[in-house]
Every structure is written in structure tokens, then in C-alpha cells.
Amino acid sequence: MKKRNIILILFLIQTCGCLPKIQIQERSSDDDAISLIEKGKKQFSLGDYESAMKSFQKVLEISKTVDNQQIAAIAYNNIGTTLLMSDDLDGSENNFKSALEINRKLNNKSELIVNLNNLGKLYKEKKDYQNAKKMYEDALAESQSAKDMVQTAAVYNNLGICEIEAGNFEKAKELFEKSEKINRAKNNEEGLAMNMRNLGNLFQKQQKYDEAFNCFETALKIHKKSEDSYNISGDLSSMGYVLEKLAQNSEALECYQRAFEINEKLGIKDRMKKDIYNIIRTAETLNKKEIIKTYREKLNSF
């Protein structure tokens, strides 16, 4: 989501006597909405979907009060994303469609592409791959029309994921590599990291574990450069799984423990639980009794 410039209303008040002028900055409703959007995004990234939902719903209420359709579309999109993560697929679909309808009226191409991508993800979750692919193809047409190469690369990624689900691994690889080529040309490191993750997942499904590990490791290096803790923990978890498959259990255990430490600091409980299960399983293979005991106690504390 792009940051938008908000016009602040400044009032100059002339006071009596020798006191200087006082400049008072009033807070507008749009400012409140933007602050709530950022607050909701933070809550969402920490896995606190209930609090994120409350923030985004307040944004929607503000947008209706001030009749700001652009902010309303953002609110609908964020509510839809939060509902998707909470497995309310029908509610998510309704909100994504509301955002899409507004952005079509506003002819807001960049947000329109985001909405289409999100609907594609929703239909993929519903295992409606035909509609998912259609949404991604519509997003591709819009991004190419707008000559937005970064968005085009993102859509290629999403189409590749659909092809994986359909079992078309070579087609998926072709789409991921198209995306990678654009992201390298545009020096889009965030997009490149996603390419590496998706290629890693593809190689993992093909049981090409060495290639998968190299991809996840490349993604990790990129995320370390940007100090993206959330994605660093995801990369470590993926690397741990591949290392397990390569029977490198000590190294896998280390990855899982590092992932847990990060997620513990971030307070992401659903990820922490997954990490603990991974740690216990790997520690049992290695007969690391103290580690097993420690993490079972942590698990019981949830």
C-alpha cells in the first residue's frame, strides 16, 4: 500500500500582549485513518488478527464519515486480508469485491491490481483454481497495460503458484523465472526474495532438496539485508525442513531454534507453536532430552 500525502490544516492564533504566535496543528480524520491503517498492519504482522480487524473496521467507519472512497477501498481490502487469515473465506471475498468495485470506479490501477491478486489468493484457498487463475490473468493484463513491471513480476509469481497446485511444475518454474528476470532488472530485492522462496517450494515438492535449500538461503540473505525479522524466521523454518529431508538434523534443529527465538521476540504465537513442534520432532531424532523437555514446557505454557 502506498503512503499518501495528507494535507494538514494549520491554524495561527494571535495571542494578547507580548506572547509570540502559537502554531496549532489539528489532526484530521484522514490522519486518524492513516494512523489506524499503520496500527492495523503492525497488529496483523504480529498475528493479532482480532486487534487488526478492529483497527481496519474503524478506518472503514472514518472513510464513510468523511466520504473518502480511496480510504474505504483500502479498509475493505485490509479487512478482507484479515478475514482470509482467520479462515472466513466468504467474508473475505465480499470485502475484496467491495474494494475492487471502488477501485474500478476510481480507476486506481495500482490498488486494482492488488485487489485482483488478493481475490486470486482467496480462490486458491477455496481450491477454485480456475477462478484464481482468472483473477491473476486479469491482474496481469492490468499491470502490463499500466506498464507496471514490478506488479507484473508479482503476478507471474502468483500464476506460478497456481501451476504448482495444478501439478504443472515446468510451467510454474517458467513463470517464476520470468518474475525473477524482471525483479533482477528492477533491482527489486523484496520481489526477488519471493521468487527464491517460490522456487524453493517448487524444488521441495520435486524433492530436489539441495536446490531448494540454496533458494531459501538466498531469500534469507536478502531478508537479513533489509532486517525483515518476520520473513527471516520463515526462511529459517523452510531451511530447517529441507535440512531434515537431507538428514542434516543438527543443522535443522539450529534453524528451527533460531526461527523460534525470532518469533518469540515478535510475539507471533501461531508460528511459535509450529517452531516448537519442529524443534521437538528434530530433537527426538537426535535424542536431545534436555531440549525436548525445555520445549515441551514452553508448549504447555500456551
Looking at this protein, list some descriptive labels.
mainly alpha; Serine Threonine Protein Phosphatase 5, Tetratricopeptide repeat; 302 residues; 3% strand; globular; 3 domains; disordered N terminus
List the topology elements.
Elements (H helix, E strand, L loop, with lengths): L9 E4 L8 E4 L3 H17 L3 H18 L2 H17 L3 H18 L2 H17 L3 H17 L3 H17 L3 H17 L3 H17 L3 H17 L3 H17 L3 H18 L2 H18 L2 H12 L2
Antiparallel strand pairs: 1-2
Helix pairs in contact: 1-2, 1-3, 2-3, 3-4, 3-5, 4-5, 5-6, 5-7, 6-7, 7-8, 7-9, 8-9, 9-10, 10-11, 11-12, 12-13, 13-14
Description of the structure:
This protein is mostly helical and 302 residues long. It has three domains: 29-106, Alpha Horseshoe (Serine Threonine Protein Phosphatase 5, Tetratricopeptide repeat), CATH 1.25.40.10; 112-227, Tetratricopeptide repeat domain (Serine Threonine Protein Phosphatase 5, Tetratricopeptide repeat), CATH 1.25.40; 228-302, Serine Threonine Protein Phosphatase 5, Tetratricopeptide repeat (Alpha Horseshoe). It is 78% helix and 3% strand. The chain has 14 helices and two strands, in the order ββαααααααααααααα. The protein has helices spanning 29-45, 49-66, 69-85, 89-106, 109-125, 129-145, 149-165, 169-185, 189-205, 209-225, 229-245, 249-266, 269-286, 289-300; strands at residues 10-13, 22-25. The chain has a two-stranded antiparallel sheet. The radius of gyration is 23 Å and the shape is globular.
- The name of the CATH architecture of the largest domain is Alpha Horseshoe
Which parts are unreliable, with pLDDT below 50 for 5 consecutive residues or more?
A: 1-27
Residue-averaged pLDDT: 90
Strand content: under 5%
Question: What gyration radius follows from the Cα positions, in whole Å?
Answer: 23 Å
Residues in helix, %: over 70%
CATH topology of the largest domain: Serine Threonine Protein Phosphatase 5, Tetratricopeptide repeat
Contiguous helical run count: 14
How would you name the CATH homologous superfamily of the largest domain?
A: Tetratricopeptide repeat domain
Structural class: mainly alpha
Helix-strand pattern = EEHHHHHHHHHHHHHH
Biggest sheet, open or closed, and with what strands and sense?
2 strands, antiparallel
Number of domains: 3
The total of beta strands comes to: 2
Distance between the termini: 34 Å
Q: Trace the largest sheet across and list its strands.
A: 1-2
Q: In the CATH hierarchy, what is the class of the largest domain?
A: Mainly Alpha
Shape: globular
> Oligomeric status of the shown chains?
single chain
